Inverse folding.
């Protein structure tokens, strides 16, 4: 789990695990920087991403495996659609939609960012 970043959403009030991460909670959904998808305690490997989700295949293949989806300097757009209970993660290499659990949607969603080992920086933009 070195140097990977998780970006997604979680239900309010979830507690971090023993490693300090909230990404593995059943009320979390999102995508790791290596392309792995997490939703309702289900993991989808980056190798199983649908071809339609990869919008810049050459760049996706050229990047180191931990940075396939987002890397230093990338802008990541996180969009929650309450009407369709979905989360869209859009980066320079992918645009992927994740179904959200309806049970957590009634509480609303909060941005969830988890960092693996290494130095990381991020800037939130309105």
């Amino acid at each position: 789990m070195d140097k990977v970043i998780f970006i997604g959403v979680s239900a309010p009030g979830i507690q971090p695990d023993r490693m300090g991460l909230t990404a593995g909670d059943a009320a979390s959904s999102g995508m790791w920087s290596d392309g792995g998808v997490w939703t309702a305690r289900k993991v989808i490997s980056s190798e199983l991403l649908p071809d339609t989700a990869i919008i810049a295949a050459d760049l996706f293949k050229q990047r180191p495996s931990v940075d396939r989806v987002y890397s230093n300097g990338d802008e990541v757009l996180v969009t929650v659609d309450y009407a369709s209970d979905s989360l869209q993660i859009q980066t320079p290499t992918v645009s992927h939609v994740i179904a959200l659990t309806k049970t957590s949607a009634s509480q609303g969603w909060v941005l969830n960012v988890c960092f693996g080992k290494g130095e990381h920086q991020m800037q939130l933009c309105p």
